[in-house]
Design goal:
single chain; Cytidine Deaminase, domain 2; alpha+beta; binds tetrahydrodeoxyuridine; five-stranded mixed beta sheet
Length: 130
């Protein structure tokens, strides 16, 4: 997609600073580029009832969808605790629901200071959608 993914990663990093993760101490931030060109950020938010935790990626995607977006084209993911921080299975499925059918979704991670861009299709082949 015609967008500076370095900036998208910068926004994911900024979002990771807002992480509420006192239980895992594993902070994550995400920045979603919607087809409209708008960007939505999110962080992981944990809870004393552990199952209520939401990942950074779903937090950002749900913010986008709740603002009226239906198609996302890129998601940058960052954790200060891990290189090449990749999305969990649940988040892959949520990305699949809101992917741009023509373009797919670019997933951007950072590994030792360099960006890696992969397609959602690589993470979730034969995805399910009604
Ligand atoms: N986490 C995310 O935010 N995104 C992922 O894709 C993987 C996991 C969060 C959930 C939890 O707060 C912490 O990382 C440890 O699992």
């Amino acid at each position: 997609m015609d967008y500076d993914y370095k900036n998208l990663m910068h926004l994911a990093k900024e979002a990771s600073k807002k992480s509420y993760s006192p239980f895992s101490r594993f902070a994550v931030g995400a920045a979603v580029l919607a087809k409209s060109g708008k960007i939505y950020t999110g962080c992981n938010i944990e809870n004393s009832s552990f199952g209520m935790t939401i990942c950074a990626e779903r937090c950002a995607i749900f913010k986008a969808v709740s603002e009226g977006e239906r198609e996302i084209v890129a998601v940058a993911i960052y954790s200060p605790n891990a290189d090449d921080c990749n999305p969990c299975g649940a988040c892959r499925q949520v990305m699949y629901e809101f992917q741009d059918d023509e373009y797919g979704v670019d997933i951007i991670t950072e590994n030792m200071g360099s960006l890696i861009t992969r397609k959602l299709e690589e993470y979730l082949p034969y995805g399910f959608k009604i």
